[in-house]
Amino acid sequence: MVAVQETVERVRRIDVDQYRYGFETLIESDKAPKGLSEDTVRFISAKKNEPAWMLEWRLEAYRRWLTMTEPTWARVDYPKIDYQDIYYYAAPKPKKTLSSTDEIDPEILKTYEKLGIPLREVAILEGVEPPPGGPQTPNRKIAVDAVFDSVSVATTFQKELKAAGVIFMPISEAIREHPELVQKYLGTVVPTSDNYFATLNSAVFSDGSFVYVPPGVRCPMELSTYFRINERNTGQFERTLIIADKGSYVSYLEGCTAPQRDENQLHAAVVELVTLDDAEIKYSTVQNWYPGNSEGKGGIYNFVTKRGDCRGKNSKISWTQVETGSAITWKYPSCILRGDNSSGEFYSIAISNGFQQVDSGTKMIHLAKNTSSRIISKGIAAGKSQNTYRGLVSAHRKATGARNYTACDSLLIGDKCGAHTVPYVEAKNSSATFEHEATTSKISEDVLFYCLQRGLSEQQAIGLVVNGFAKDVLQKLPMEFAVEAQKLISISLEGSVG
Amino acid sequence: MTLLEIRDLHVGVDSREIIRGLDLMVNAGEVHAIMGPNGSGKSTLSHVIAGKPGYEVTGGQILFRGEDLLEMEPNERAAKGVFLAFQYPVEIPGVTTMNFLRTALNAQRKARGRGEFSTPEFLKKVREVAESLNIPRDMLKRGVNVGFSGGEKKRNEILQMALFEPSLCILDEIDSGLDIDALRIVASGINGLRSPERAMIVITHYQRLLHYIVPDYVHVMSKGRVVKSGGKELALELEACGYGQFETAA
Ligand SMILES: Nc1ncnc2c1ncn2[C@@H]1O[C@H](COP(=O)(O)OP(=O)(O)OP(=O)(O)O)[C@@H](O)[C@H]1O
Ligand SMILES: [Mg+2]
């Protein structure tokens, strides 16, 4: 990502107060009235020209949500959210229907340019610097589905995808154009009743991505969505649904940023993945929402439900995440291993600095025979942050031969932060083999001095050491994401010492 | 030209005085050997020159080209040309030696107002130097010093010294852990870097190293002071008689 690299390179020294993506685009937006009621739900549904079944689905979720209470078990602490003080829908006012990226509001394009996202097809990943001594990677393509506040503003590469039979479009469009697929799968992984935030999302979700890969198809390019929260007091509630039909494969990249604001913004997304027999989904996230300023003011509340269902035999779902942003992160991308021989993976780097609170991890639910899962979690805590890994590995009575390997490593920078590991293990049959390893370490003075003696600044040294610590996970990211993620890691740790 | 000037240096750790009034003058082009018994403060001196935190300088001064070195951050000192080859180089897991070298080299070049090396330029240079030190290429792809043998770690230090082109090289027991062949290779690498602009301080326990790297001056350190200075023949004298005569002098 040339643009991304340039953007990153231009950033020299920022601290938590100087969030890199803290600019705001001035475009008129089309907002729902503040607050949440059946009318809000109807407003959103109407805006989207949704069919009646979709509205019903939402309303049912809304009614259920009214009976639920906000969960409090996570190790995060925040003032009570006033759900009536939030705008649930904001769309950039469309000037006309868009048929290509050329017609996108230039203001929006500019925003994406600042973010370094190649919305225009010409900006396809050229010249990503290979690692020294490493192989030259051929240019790869990424199809971008950009979500600007609540609406997907552009979808590129449609033609090539169409030729392959891959459906990649905003979910709002899929609801109208592929109702049979959406109805068949929506809410089957994360039911509308699942948890407080997922239920809220089901009622008011505004947009997100929809992907369907037909049987036997290997998606010809990486699919990507960048989320960005622009509007003040706007909750962002994306809904993403990805289905890999029998024997298919898709890799999906998600990146998020938000402008800098004093008040907190709520983000409650739901992502559902389904793999049928022999199919594979690789889902990668780089999350750098605004983390709040150096006094802990502002920042995104990120309450996300991500779950994959390995529904078919021999299928595989792999989550890779790099979490550097948000004031509060509450996020447990999980796998349900329902098909025999299916496997789930979770690779995570979670960085917290300043006053950030991260409670993240995964659930691996082994339901079928000979299922396997692998969890590699790297938590890095700096400043006055709290970083918790929370994981569940469970084997059902029928899940004979279930295997799990978990490694949780925490790295502390300074002595005012905290790292915590909360693993839950439940094996309901005796043939399950679960392994768990955990370490906690600090960056050693001797290592820092060695780096400084060789001319590195303290920040460079920490960036390098932390990237080394997180390497196992970074390697799981697609190449162009890995480059960006490495720089993000260094940037998000600036101001973490001294 | 005087490169390094240390005057009446006093250094303590946890209120215990380790360097107790040390003087040393090093001119460009010279090689100084420092010898002395275990615990006499040799490594401490090298750390204080390089700026390692945790030491309290309670008196005296260190000037580098007339500038107060003690006022500078360790990385500024590195950029000014101070290089320390560590007695015990650390391991940095997950960071390839290549990546480390490139990041460090470019940081120094930048600080010296020179352009960064492009990847091909850099690769060419590293490979050349690595070859001359008998460092296999795949060692460069491994984590910095991770799983390196004692000798490999020392060669890696010299590799960095050659790359960074420092003007003051402090070599702290570069000969420890080296077999005869490695000693010869490392010594010839070091000799190749001797130049009229560059000075070296070679800390060692053994005449053996000084046989290869012939010093202009030899200093004997004991209990935190230089107790005797002389020419290269002083090292031979030490080898024959030991430190006993100086212990009392200190
Ligand atoms: N961080 C520290 N804390 C406490 N004591 C220290 C520290 N660093 C050095 N010392 C002490 O200072 C004295 C000098 O140590 P130093 O490592 O400089 O000796 P040296 O001359 O390099 O010895 P050697 O030949 O064994 O390498 C020793 O007594 C050592 O224990
Ligand atoms: Mg020593």
**Number of helices in the DSSP assignment of chain B:** 10
Bound ligands: adenosine-5'-triphosphate, magnesium ion
The oligomerization state is heterodimer
Query: Which structural class best describes the helix and strand composition of chain B?
Result: alpha/beta
Q: What's the average pLDDT of chain A? A: 80
Of all chain pairs, the largest interface belongs to: A-B, 28 and 40 residues
Enter the CATH topology name of chain B: Rossmann fold
Please mark out the parts of chain A with pLDDT under 50 across 5 or more consecutive residues, or reply none.
Answer: 1-18, 95-99, 118-139
Structural class of chain A: alpha/beta
Strand percentage of chain A: 25-35%
Report on the biggest sheet of chain A: 11 strands, mixed
Give the beta-strand count of chain A.
23
Shape assignment of chain B? globular
Average pLDDT of chain B: 91
Fraction in helix of chain A? 10-25%
Using the CA coordinates, give the radius of gyration of chain B: 18 Å
Q: Report the C-alpha radius of gyration of chain A, rounded.
A: 22 Å
**In the residues of chain B, how many domains can be counted?**
1
List the defining traits of the structure above:
heterodimer, A: 498 residues, alpha/beta, 11-stranded mixed β-sheet, 10-stranded mixed β-sheet, 12 helices, 33% strand, disordered N terminus, B: 250 residues, Rossmann fold, 6-stranded mixed β-sheet, 4-stranded antiparallel β-sheet, 10 helices, globular, binds adenosine-5'-triphosphate, binds magnesium ion
Protein architecture, described:
- The complex is a heterodimer of chains A (498) and B (250).
- Chain A has 498 residues and is an alpha/beta fold.
- Chain A is 23% helix and 33% strand.
- In chain A, strands 5, 6, 8, 10, 11, 13, 15, 16, 18, 20 and 22 form an eleven-stranded mixed sheet that branches.
- Chain A is globular.
- Chain A starts with a helix and ends in a 6-residue tail after the last helix.
- By secondary structure, chain B is an alpha/beta fold.
- Chain B has a single domain (2-246), classed as Rossmann fold.
- In chain B, 40% of the residues lie in helices and 29% in strands.
- Chain B has helices at 42-50, 74-80, 97-111, 119-132, 137-141, 150-164, 180-192, 207-212, 233-241, 244-249; strands spanning 2-13, 16-27, 31-35, 56-64, 67-68, 82-85, 92-96, 143-144, 168-172, 199-203, 217-222, 225-230.
- In chain B, the strands form three sheets. A six-stranded mixed sheet of chain B has the order 6-9-10-3-11-12, with helices on both faces. A four-stranded antiparallel sheet of chain B has the order 2-1-4-5, with helices on one face.
- In chain B, strand 1 and strand 2 (16-27) form a beta hairpin.
- The model of chain B has no long low-confidence stretch (mean pLDDT 91).
- Residues 42-43, 87, 172 of chain B line the site of magnesium ion (MG).
